[in-house]
Each structure stands twice: as structure tokens, then as C-alpha cells.
Write a structure and sequence with these properties.
Shape of chain A: globular
Oligomer: heterodimer
Radius of gyration of chain B: 13 Å
Order of helices and strands of chain B: EEEEEEEEEEE
Strand content of chain A: over 45%
Mean pLDDT of chain A: 93
Largest interface: A-B, 24 and 28 residues
Distance between the termini of chain B: 37 Å
Number of strands of chain A: 11
Radius of gyration of chain A: 13 Å
Structural class of chain A: mainly beta
Number of helices of chain A: 1
Helix content of chain A: under 10%
Low-confidence stretches of chain B: none
Chain lengths: 115, 113
């Protein structure tokens, strides 16, 4: 039951260009979405989040866009840097009821930044 | 920056054996979690723990699994009788309150042979 889907297992982007990672969800109860970044041999690291009351949240080079009607969110990284090469996980939860406890993760997208 | 630490980094055990995975959450955090990732699959929620009791668990977290906070710093996951399909990376996480992002440890890779 894939409630959170990341359909691109991998993405390669030239350094300095924009990286766009996509995520779709099916559960309309989700109201809080997060992106995590994971390097090999490390745990996921929180990157940025967005509540369903917003459609955009920005933090430095990272921006997350949420389209509730399409049940789609995306993470934009501008400009992309070699250190951004990692696996990116989209995650979702129903924060209004349960808080942040039970995150449902996507399968991840491996981003490679080409110098 | 404070971090969640997990030991060991890699544990190999034989099928049917008991295994205990250890975690030290960030010291002022109140909520603790275990997630796991089977190779090539997504990260899955196992259990959350607050105020010395389980607050939520997934269908994966059956009677073979248990969690404990034996003292003020450690948080453990025990698998009583391991199966081959328990082989996975197990991540411990913690947060200060239920609405703040989770901080994950680097994981313990469990291999059941």
C-alpha cells in the first residue's frame, strides 16, 4: 500500500542547475509533509517541511511546493551543489491527530549532482 | 550539535536468537521511535514511545518485538526470536515534542542468517 510515492528512483543534475524532486500521496488525511536527506551509512536528516495550510515553504536553497488538489509535492534545490548528492525521502503524516509520530515514507530518489 | 547514537552499527545473528538494538536519544527529547528499512524498500514506522509506554505501533511490531527505556538515557529494541525477514537497517529517532522533526541515528544493520 504505497500511500507516498516517489516515482523517480534516481535523478542526475548538473552543478549549479535546479534539482526538482517529486512526490505524490494518496491519503487525503495527510496534512504535514517533510523531506529528509540521507547519505550512505547515516540516518535520514530532516531538510524542510510544509503544512497543508501552505502551498510553499522556503529555506535557503530549498523550497517545497504543495499542490493539495493534485496530492503532489516537490522539492526544489537551487543552485544544486555536489554536497546535495544523496537519497531524498518524502514523508507524510497526519499531524493534527497524532503529531509527528508515524511518518509514512516514500521509497526515495537518489540525486546525483554532476560537477 | 547533539545527535542520536545507535550501537552496534552492524549486528549479525542466527535465526531464532534474541537481539537487542541500543539507542541513546538526544538528552532533552521526550519522544522516541524505531523505524526500519529493508534493503531496497522504504523506511517503515515500527513504534513510538513516550512517558515510559508505547504510544503507537505498526502491524510490523508484533509480539516478537519489545521496547524499553531501562534508564534515563538508553532506549532499546528487542527482537525475541529473529527471522530471516527481520534483516534490515533499524533506525532510532527522537524529538522534543510530537510536532517537531525527528532526529534519526545512523542505524544498526541487522543481518539474520
Amino acid at each position: 500500500d504505497q500511500q507516498v510515492k516517489q516515482n523517480s528512483p534516481s535523478l542526475s543534475v548538473q552543478e549549479g542547475r535546479i534539482s526538482i524532486l517529486n512526490c505524490d500521496y494518496t491519503n487525503s488525511m495527510f496534512d504535514y509533509f517533510l523531506w529528509y536527506k540521507k547519505y550512505p551509512a547515516e540516518g535520514p536528516t530532516f531538510l524542510i517541511s510544509i503544512s497543508s495550510i501552505k502551498d510553499k515553504n522556503e529555506d535557503g536553497r530549498f523550497t517545497v511546493f504543495l499542490n493539495k488538489s493534485a496530492k503532489h509535492l516537490s522539492l526544489h534545490i537551487v543552485p544544486s551543489q555536489p554536497g546535495d548528492s544523496a537519497v531524498y525521502f518524502c514523508a507524510a503524516t497526519t499531524i493534527s491527530n497524532f503529531g509527528n509520530e508515524k511518518l509514512t515514507f516514500g521509497t526515495g530518489t537518489r540525486l546525483t549532482i554532476i560537477p | 550539535e547533539p545527535e542520536v547514537t545507535q550501537t552496534p552499527s552492524h549486528q549479525v545473528t542466527q535465526m531464532g536468537q534474541e537481539v537487542i538494538l541500543r539507542c541513546v536519544p538526544i538528552s532533552n527529547h521526550l519522544y522516541f521511535y524505531w523505524y526500519r528499512q529493508i534493503l531496497g524498500q522504504k523506511v517503515e514506522f515500527l513504534v513510538s514511545f513516550y512517558n515510559n509506554e508505547i504510544s503507537e505501533k505498526s502491524e510490523i511490531f508484533d509480539d516478537q518485538f519489545s521496547v524499553e527505556r531501562p534508564d534515563g538515557s538508553n532506549f532499546t529494541l528487542k527482537i525475541r526470536s529473529t527471522k530471516l525477514e527481520d534483516s534490515a537497517m533499524y533506525f532510532c529517532a527522537s524529538n522534543l515534542d510530537r510536532r517537531s522533526p525527528l532526529h534519526f541515528g545512523n542505524g544498526t544493520r541487522l543481518t539474520v542468517t
